[in-house]
Design goal:
The chain is mostly helical and about 230 residues long. The chain contains twelve helices and three strands. It has a three-stranded antiparallel β-sheet with strand order 1-3-2.
């Protein structure tokens, strides 16, 4: 097996364990444990953790190791409000240069998201993959590399929270409905509507977190962090 494929496999597994809550916020991720679990050597695990650190999905603390980020309510609010502004700007920039072929590519991703939501049970990880694909494609079309990298980093930081919230059926349906409305606005060339829907889509996800029951939030954050922010 090629080294790159081993690193990729380690990266994918660690990411999935973080997103689905197998690794909790604030928990240390130890190379030795990962290598034993995946039955691979430690160097590919080390490389995978470096890749995830670059995306914002893990953080490295000097002389302590690698950890899952521990976010407070204030952290989540800051990330989502900034993410909303950036996604709105991405939509505006993309619509300046978008071709009919690119519009169709985006609509295909939305159709795939709609198909996933129609299935029982819904594969949330698969939905998230296509959801991320939609926004990544939009960022690629916009063509602002620095903005795209920053927005992608913010998205990665709250992916575990998104996974938990999307398990709520109403939020899942609202998410896919927003994407259908966004793509229809893009097809009509209605830039103000598309931008407004994009921003509201992100901010509504933030409201879901505020409405989550304390018991649900406590599963994500240690009790000492719940009231911060």
């Amino acid at each position: 097996m090629k080294v790159d494929s081993i690193v990729d496999r380690a990266c994918q597994n660690i990411q999935e364990w973080i997103v689905t809550g197998r690794f909790k916020p604030g928990e240390q991720i130890k190379e030795e444990n990962i290598s034993q679990r995946l039955e691979i050597s430690r160097p590919p695990v080390r490389e995978a953790l470096k890749m995830l650190e670059a995306t914002g999905l893990v953080v490295r603390k000097p002389r302590r190791g690698v950890f899952v980020p521990l976010l407070t309510r204030k952290d989540v609010w800051e990330i989502y409000t900034l993410k909303a502004a950036l996604y709105e700007l991405v939509t505006e920039l993309a619509m300046d240069v978008m071709t009919d072929i690119e519009v169709r590519e985006l609509e295909t991703l939305v159709e795939e998201m709609e198909q996933i939501v129609s299935e029982d049970p819904v594969d949330i990880l698969r939905y998230q993959k296509h959801h991320k694909g939609f926004h990544s494609r939009l960022m690629g079309i916009a063509g602002n590399g620095r903005l795209n990298a920053f927005a992608a980093n913010l998205h990665n930081q709250v992916t575990p929270f998104s996974y938990k919230s999307l398990q709520q059926k109403d939020h899942l349906l609202a998410s896919v409905r927003y994407h259908r409305e966004i793509i229809e606005a893009i097809k009509m060339g209605d830039r103000p509507l598309a931008c407004r829907l994009m921003k509201q889509h992100v901010l509504d996800a933030l409201l879901v977190f505020r409405d989550m029951q304390d018991a649900v939030w406590n599963e994500v954050l240690p009790s000492s962090m719940v009231m911060e922010g």
